[in-house]
Amino acid sequence: MYDFLKNNKSSNIYWLKYPLQHFNLTLKLKAQETITLLPKFGEHLNQSNEEDAQNVLQYQEYNFQWQEKLFSQYQFTKFGDIQNCVSEKDLAFHRSIHQFNKKPQKVFTYVNKEYAFPLPFKSKDNGIGLYSSCIKKLNLEIFLNDNFGKGESMHNLFKSEDDVAFEDEWKAMYIFYDNSNYDEDNNLIFQDECLLISVYHNTKYNYIMISPDVNNESNPYAVESSSGYLDFEYFINVDFGKSGCGEEFKDLLNKLLKKMEKKQKHLIKFVMPPLETRKYYISLEIESAKDFDGDIYIEYHVKVPENIDSVSLLTGRTHLNKCLMNEDIHMWAFGHIVDFEVESATGIDPLPLRIFFEVISVDRWGRHRTEGYTYFPLALIPGFCKKQLSCTRPEELNEIDAESRRFFVGGYHLIEDLEMLVKPQLYATNFRFVSTGSIAVHWTVISHSHSPGCHSSENQSPVPHTSCSELIQGADAVLKQYKRAKETLAAATKSLIRAVDSE
User: Fold this and answer.
1) What is the pLDDT of residues 392-448, one digit of tens each?
2) Bridge partners of residue 13, in order along the sequence
3) With b meaning 16 or more CB within 10 Å and e meaning fewer, what string describes 435-472?
4) DSSP state of 205
5) What's this model's pTM, rounded to 2 decimal places?
6) Which DSSP category does 321 fall into?
7) Can you list the pairs that 219-226 forms with residues at least 24 positions away whose Cβ atoms lie under 8 Å?
8) Using CA atoms, how far apart are residues 490 and 492, in angstroms rounded to an integer?
């Protein structure tokens, strides 16, 4: 089982938050603890041999930056002599050796510009890329063979185009252990390079793939060579830099906690509205959308009638969301909740609120396009409701101009006033509306006002529950204050009467 774990290597993918300049890979290598490392009989008295054995059993640590070039003995000898350098890459390695005084290493690297090994996933389709796959799907291979001999030049052209596109998408780096044999003059006798780690960076989606994955000292990997497994083991650790990301996450959690505490405090504190005022609490959830294109988000605008006041923020937007497939239907799940509060005078029936939505898509070039508008009147009637809103998108009358402008620059806003969605007959337009997708919403309305005979002042604090004994004590205190005030008034009246009689 121990050997199985050491040889069972697997890859892993890491999404990058910071640039690869902060990437640091640590490799620790040591000899396995086998019987071949035990000292011979009588050598245990020699202290130097014991120290050498201890050094062999300790991990040797190697640190690597992204695309850092380290040279093996063979590479050092080859690129160190300028007579062996025939390309710009070779000359760059030659200058690196002499300018930075680099030395040969037992653990060395191949960087991306050396093109030493195939990139990941390339062998799955046997080198068939975009152009070649199109030829295969369209059954054009027979046509190429009949018209271009055997079509070798044409196939090579397609293959080279695919390779360029693929290599632009991936960058690679390889770490090797040099197990080659050299003579006394460091001339190569037998070349044996053991692959330890492969690191691939996908520049399109900005993630790296490490093979084998990060491990620890309790389960190290065995070093594999062409002749079998060597008596060495190693483990890997990766640091993506920016150690403060944990603090950033902690700050984010603290901000969310404060926000939740503030919201909870607001919910717990029950304050009666002013007299002759009715408050309405609305919780609206933008649940989902369907039948649109690309990654979308939704902007909302709440317009209140003139006889209704509001202290809440009445505009906003959801997060950017990606498409999900649900029974062959393109859906976007948002779950975005909007809470706001309005108030009006009692004794009147308030007009409904008007909720406007604009669905906007974002493509890979960062262009924002309007995918549809919709609106609905939200009546201030207590209860729970849900609705499916159909969306329409304004489009120019000239379809060619409309599609061209929408494709190249994302189109432009044809609706300047959202009231056009409510009363389109009052506006003169030179465009038409095209049906697109739909939005699912649901909302809850709660109303709150004074009951008849209840008195309260503005900004009243919560009234605690009182017992009968407390009410009686309060009444006694009021009566005592009344008697004391009456006695004071009677004494003042007597003194005034005496003063009048003396005159």
Assistant:
1) 888 877 777 777 777 776 676 777 778 878 777 667 677 788 888 999 999 999 988
2) 209
3) ebbbbbbebebebbbbeeeeeeeeeeeeeeeeeeeeee
4) T
5) 0.45
6) B
7) 219/5, 219/6, 220/6, 221/6, 221/7, 221/9, 221/196, 222/3, 222/6, 222/7, 222/32, 223/29, 223/177, 223/179, 223/194, 223/196, 224/7, 224/194, 224/195, 225/179, 225/192, 225/194, 226/192
8) 5
